[in-house]
Write a structure and sequence with these properties.
The chain starts with a helix and ends with a strand. Strand 1 and strand 2 form a beta hairpin. It has a four-stranded mixed beta sheet with strand order 2-1-3-4. The chain is of the alpha+beta class.
């Protein structure tokens, strides 16, 4: 009898611990990641002036709204020296990527990375440059996603979710005619 009570109490204690762990791991600041992805991708891709003017109006409007102090932290930009350096490096490489996007040599993947799609009509040097550039950009994007996770205090196991959010923004910010990967893995030209 005593043994069964101990087993029952042990089972209940372990169940409570398991439920608590699941509850802790469920929290994911999706809105903060989306906002961060929007800011970073827009800056790297140099969003058009209309988008900038719209954001400026939103910033002016939000500065006059009555925002409770509890939400003040959400309004801050997610940044760190590493994030700023990665963002600047990606921004510097963007002009080098543009011709390859325009010619259809690379495309935006649905996982937040770029992929070589076609090397036809490229010289050996251009192929080597494209492969090196793709590897460099993907490495920097991978580091960026990790740094965003650190800055937002997100478990590293959640980085694939961060990548998906960024991927959506990279694809949204792609130009018409660029190759993009749909959710089912199929590639299409953005219309």
């Amino acid at each position: 009898m005593k043994k069964s009570k101990i087993l029952l109490l042990t089972f209940l204690a372990l169940s409570i611990v398991a439920i608590a762990c699941v509850t802790i791991n469920i929290y994911f600041p999706e809105a903060a990641v989306q906002k961060t992805a929007e800011e970073i991708v827009d800056e790297v891709r140099k969003a058009d002036e209309e988008g900038k003017e719209k954001k400026d109006k939103e910033i002016i409007h939000s500065s006059f709204s009555l925002v409770p102090a509890a939400y003040a932290q959400e309004e801050e930009r997610v940044s760190s020296p590493k994030i700023r350096a990665l963002k600047q490096s990606l921004k510097d490489k963007e002009p080098l990527l543009l011709p390859f996007f325009e010619k259809g040599n690379i495309g935006e993947g649905n996982d937040g990375f770029i992929y070589v799609r076609n090397e036809d009509n490229l010289t050996l040097k251009e192929k080597a440059d494209l492969r090196r550039l793709t590897k460099d950009v993907n490495g920097e994007r991978e580091n960026l996603y990790s740094e965003v996770a650190k800055a937002l205090d997100i478990d590293s196991g959640q980085i694939p979710r961060i990548q998906k959010i960024f991927a959506k923004r990279w694809i949204e910010n792609s130009r018409t005619g660029w190759w993009i990967q749909k959710e089912d893995g199929q590639w299409e030209r953005k219309s």
